[in-house]
Amino acid sequence: MPLQKLQGAMRIFSCQRSYCLKAQGQLTKDFVEALKAVAGSSNVSTSLAVCEQHGRDESMHRCSPPDAVVWPQDVEQVSKLAAMCYSQGVPIIPFGTGTGLEGGVSAVRGGVCFNLTRMDRILQLNTEDFTVAVEPGVTHKALNSYLRGSGLWFPVDPGADASLCGMAATSASGTNAVRYGTMRHNVLNLQVVLPDGRVLHTAGQGRHFRKSSAGYNLTGLFMGSEGTLGLITQATLKLHGTPEAMVSAVCSFPSVQAAVDCTVQVLQASIPIARIEFLDDVMISACNQFSGLSYTVSPTLFLEFHGTPRSLEEQVQNTGLLHGCVCPHLPAPQDCGGDQERPGGIWAHRRALALNGTCTGEHGIGLGKRQLLQEEIGEVGLAIMKHIKATLDPKDLMNPGKVL
Amino acid sequence: MPLQKLQGAMRIFSCQRSYCLKAQGQLTKDFVEALKAVAGSSNVSTSLAVCEQHGRDESMHRCSPPDAVVWPQDVEQVSKLAAMCYSQGVPIIPFGTGTGLEGGVSAVRGGVCFNLTRMDRILQLNTEDFTVAVEPGVTHKALNSYLRGSGLWFPVDPGADASLCGMAATSASGTNAVRYGTMRHNVLNLQVVLPDGRVLHTAGQGRHFRKSSAGYNLTGLFMGSEGTLGLITQATLKLHGTPEAMVSAVCSFPSVQAAVDCTVQVLQASIPIARIEFLDDVMISACNQFSGLSYTVSPTLFLEFHGTPRSLEEQVQNTGLLHGCVCPHLPAPQDCGGDQERPGGIWAHRRALALNGTCTGEHGIGLGKRQLLQEEIGEVGLAIMKHIKATLDPKDLMNPGKVL
């Protein structure tokens, strides 16, 4: 059995290598020179090592490297480069921090990877409107460092230090979504380069407002589109007032049902809880092993309360009344990574579908969940998604092979 | 001058009549019989009076009556009726409560008005998941009456007792959006009959979940589409825990800037305020006259706080520290209607656009703001919206002449 496993691993490795070699060299020398003419020689690479670094994310999906990687410096360059790829029928793969978990950056048909990390300016912080605009290289940690002292913060935190535009592209979420919402609730508008190079401002150029009902919700359409409809080159985000104080708590339960019941009761009591993360016993055990922790191995809720000291006291007290074992002032738990390599954990995608749930709460569809998306959304929904894709990307060049 | 006004009014009235007469009789007798065969004879009308009642909403837009009105009883009927209209090239105009303010129900090219008010069941209340599904005839007041005693409520309140699916179609909002969000934040998924009769479940049939990143956000696409992409036949809504207690307050300011500053400070201090509505002095004066009130004629904020009695005390106290004139326990102000007939008020759409704002925060585009949408969203955005419209409604039969 160990031998079989070893052979399996070797086979996968060998496939990766042969694929990597095969995929190289599909761009003409002239085309690569043209990319360099736009972005500058030092911002284009066709080296095998660089392409392989860009052909996979942090998931188990195998490496599919692009034929070239380009680092645009601004939206005008992105626009020109996209138009060049579009006119030549070359696939375009957007790349942020590469921290995705669904194979979203795999260049399954080769093409040009657009590494957007060098566009990393924070623009237009507007403390009175609680908004900020960021380029695609800005990560959520970088933004929150920048905001320190302003009394504002951006609360969506998926664990990894992902880029904010990448988080918009994958409709990322995080453990404090219960109070602050996901990216879908916290992105006000986007600047997007369409596959043919046109620049779209989803809410109109230079505009920023908290709410609108002007026409179709283009911002929402690109949120979670995983780079299949265009390249997100700027996101305007909603900021929140920094909470005056925080309390975190870890709460063990005798059963999954008891943890669920407590969550429902906390929400029904309108306790404005900031963070709730549930881990079952299998995952707690894995976290203990991975990070050298010593949490009780049982279904567990990690909670966080934000507010004034006085309101925190009341929140914790009321939560305690609902469930006896709240232990405030414990340190926040560390992130314990993805779910796909833990077969005993509670995150079973097909079972979620069978219970009328979703196959993905936050990581997106990418390569691995396309069949599950079909099962989830059904025939008509899939047809509409394919129509939209064909409308916005008629040559199927934007991050091909993903989502649909 | 008064005579000219009178003549103008007479001209408008005369146009309406002639249009009403002209628009009648464009459907063949066979087609009307076919509608009756699906919906039942008593649920189809071609009477002039009924058609005129359905040809306008509560706005100043003139009446453009449909050729027939049909009251479907269920989604299967909506599907069959839409397919019939689609195959014959007959426009389809969805109709909820007719309380819109942008002329969204005007049948500018005649056709069949789908009055959906007889589909008024409240389905699948799920108190543990905080969700409920409603048919298009259910209004937000009816839903909240139904929820009384459950500990849950639906907070979006646009003033008029609009239907919830109509509120989804127009991306409605309300004065407590500051805490609970708009319809965009409170609709989890939709059932939509497409122009050709296909039934789309935007999140998959029978599914309900609070968050997902599975494929393109079809729910978001239909939110605010104003009936131009399909007929919303069911909406699954997010419910909230009923606040334990409420306090409302009315706060006068010496200037608009002072009222704005107070709002910003309240939000920066993370006071979880539920409602903020701003009225300038012109509007306060109009409200006083219209409703026999006696508010001080100056820029005014209407505030409401939700929470436990103890947290309310703190919220009101902290708001008071920011601004001295909070007067709790005053009754909530009455709704004072639309904005278009008050030229002195602060809601000037073009000025909002010039300041990088939106021409419509909540009522939609309808008939009257199509030019403003163009100015707001720009050429590329408009092109994408038109592409989407053409993709989902290739014959331009869904509520034609609206939005685009």
Shape of chain A: globular
User: What number is the mean pLDDT of chain A?
Assistant: 87
Largest beta sheet of chain A: what is the strand line-up? 5-6-10-8-9
The name CATH uses for the topology of the largest domain in chain A is: Uridine Diphospho-n-acetylenolpyruvylglucosamine Reductase, domain 3
Biggest interchain interface, per-side counts: A-B, 88 and 88 residues
Oligomer: homodimer
Strand-pairing-aware structural class of chain A: alpha+beta
- Strand proportion of chain A, as a percent range, falls in 15-25%
Q: State the distance separating the first and last CA atoms of chain A.
A: 36 Å
Low-confidence stretches of chain A: 1-24, 325-341
What is the CATH domain class of the largest domain in chain A? Answer: Alpha Beta
**Domains counted in the coordinates of chain A: how many?**
3
Largest sheet descriptor of chain A: 5 strands, antiparallel
CATH architecture of the largest domain in chain A: 2-Layer Sandwich
Provide the succession of SSEs of chain A. HHEHEHEEEEHEHHHEEHEEEHEHEHEHH
Description:
Two copies of one chain form a homodimer. By secondary structure, the first copy, chain A, is of the alpha+beta class. Chain A folds into three domains: 2-115, 2-Layer Sandwich (Uridine Diphospho-n-acetylenolpyruvylglucosamine Reductase, domain 2); 122-241, Uridine Diphospho-n-acetylenolpyruvylglucosamine Reductase, domain 3; 245-328, Alpha-Beta Plaits (2-Layer Sandwich). Chain A has helices at residues 2-23, 29-39, 48-53, 75-88, 140-147, 164-169, 177-180, 183-186, 218-222, 256-268, 281-291, 309-322, 349-354, 370-392; strands spanning 44-45, 68-70, 92-95, 112-115, 122-126, 131-134, 152-153, 187-193, 199-201, 231-238, 240-241, 245-252, 275-279, 300-307, 327-328. Chain A contains 14 helices and 15 strands. Chain A has a five-stranded antiparallel sheet. At the A-B interface, strand 9, helix 9, strand 11, helix 10 and helix 12 of A face strand 9, helix 9, strand 11, helix 10 and helix 12 of B.
